[in-house]
Amino acid sequence: TMANSKALLVLENFIGGKFVPCSSYIDSYNPSTGEVYCRVPDSGKEEVEAAVKAAKYAFPIWSSKSPLERSQILNKLADLIEHDLEAFAQAESKDQGKTITFSRTVDIPRAVYNFRFFASSILHHTTECTEMATMDCVHYTSRTPVGVAGLISPWNLPLYLLTWKIAPAIACGNTVVAKPSEMTSVTAWMMCKLLEKAGVPHGVVNVVFGTGTKAGEALVCHPDVPLISFTGSTLTAQRITEKSAPHCKRLSLELGGKNPAIIFDDADLTQCIPTTLRSSFANQGEICLCTSRIFVQRGVYSEFIKRFVAEAKKWKVGNPSDPTVDVGALISKEHLEKVRSYVKKAQAEGARVLCGEGVDSLALSSGNQKGYFMLPTVITEVKDESCCMQEEIFGPVTCVVAFDTEEEVIKRANSVKYGLAATVWSSNVGRVHRVAQRLQSGLVWTNCWLVRDLNLPFGGMKASGIGREGAKDSYEFFTEVKTITIKH
Ligand code: NAD
């Protein structure tokens, strides 16, 4: 009935294997309609305290299981999420505004894979051993789980990024208290419903919903949480670093980016253009790895601009549940306004907007008039010092500028505070290696974008983060190492 379909979804915290209501709630919006559709617990110290207590209680049980036992449970959880893939994909799209195509093909499959990947990799780690014959000694290292891990994740890839933390944390034998973004909490709550069936003991995974300043800070400041894995903005990371400093916590910080694409004259434009469109506008440009500064060598600059803009105009913006739509809604009204304000600032500085915001018109269906939509926007004639070329915009906006030499473009690409990801387009193999070596960036993709092997390190340099995640890196982060010396 209408009444039922309009009823609000009410989430509950998941603590010690049970769903528990909270005394107050936050409204959560459907970004494609602008309507409140869900209420999220507004947890604080008290709820975090209960969750940490449950996680501490479960730690001795969980950490004493063999890696194989934990691996089997993680695989079971992966199967259960995969079984409900469509329901998770629908929920993620509705909650976040992303297209159903993206959540079906990227977010949820990756969440499933995160569990499978760490279920496998935990079985294959080895520790180190050295012999010191002259001293009659052998040394070896031993790794043990750290304890209760605090996991804080953002709104852009909700279940994908949360499970990228939960999976390695529990695979290594830790128990966790997770706090997803208050704007995108639904899929984490859905996952909690599957934990018991997967065989995850009570208290191993606890999820506390709420805002960063209340629930997040309570977790960061809790003395019994020795480790925080955070993905989000650089500003929040600074605050977390300050707040956790008195406790000397172990921090992993995956932060923002201002990622360059460098396109040389000899690039294969038929590959480069569609990939650079995706790297600029996929997930509404709300991926930390999205390209927002495109440097094009003078010889192909006008051709690139012409073809890139023509293709950008073809991207269909609208109802995220329509499988033919390429760009869904941005996360919130505030965020949409912020992204738009960058386009205005660029124009005020004399830059040219070639397509999108303020140039082309956006036609939305009647149900989506109040949604937070924006057209893919391409800006040019913009100075390197401009805020559009320096600050993370995190929306469907990209800047295109020309360059002449390799030396020059490396310098310009590196002249931002961030250092997360870069793409390089060229058919000259020597140049590709040279440029990749010199870019200040945790990841460099040449002639491709977003191709990941989870075995290898992921993370940023400079203001883009501290620490790396991946098979070995996550294992090292989520375990404490000890060096033991035996004299025989
Ligand atoms: P955000 O920093 O506002 O929030 C991230 C999380 O931190 C949320 O759960 C939030 O509630 C919580 N939080 C906020 N203030 C807090 C505080 N004082 N103490 C503890 N927790 C707090 O980021 P966002 O807007 O949700 O996400 C977008 C940002 O995330 C962008 O900058 C993007 O580049 C970055 N990001 C980085 C990566 C990466 O892997 N490097 C991946 C995705 C997103």
From TrEMBL:
Catalytic activity: 2-aminomuconate 6-semialdehyde + NAD(+) + H2O = (2Z,4E)-2-aminomuconate + NADH + 2 H(+)
Pfam families: Aldedh
Top-level taxon: Eukaryota
Example of a GO biological process term: retinoic acid metabolic process
SUPFAM superfamilies found in the cross-reference section: ALDH-like
Annotated compartments: Cytoplasm
Active site: 254
Keyword Oxidoreductase: yes
TM region positions: none
Keywords: Cytoplasm, NAD, Oxidoreductase
EC number: 1.2.1.32
First-tier enzyme category under EC: oxidoreductase
GO cellular component, as recorded: cytoplasm
Gene3D superfamilies in UniProt: Aldehyde Dehydrogenase, Chain A, domain 1, Aldehyde Dehydrogenase, Chain A, domain 2
Limits of the Aldehyde dehydrogenase domain: 24-484
CDD domains per UniProt: ALDH_F8_HMSADH
Pathway assignment: Amino-acid degradation; L-kynurenine degradation
GO MF annotation terms: aminomuconate-semialdehyde dehydrogenase activity; retinal dehydrogenase (NAD+) activity
Biological function: Catalyzes the NAD-dependent oxidation of 2-aminomuconic semialdehyde of the kynurenine metabolic pathway in L-tryptophan degradation.
Family, per entry: Belongs to the aldehyde dehydrogenase family.
Record PANTHER family: 2-AMINOMUCONIC SEMIALDEHYDE DEHYDROGENASE
Name under which the protein is recorded: 2-aminomuconic semialdehyde dehydrogenase
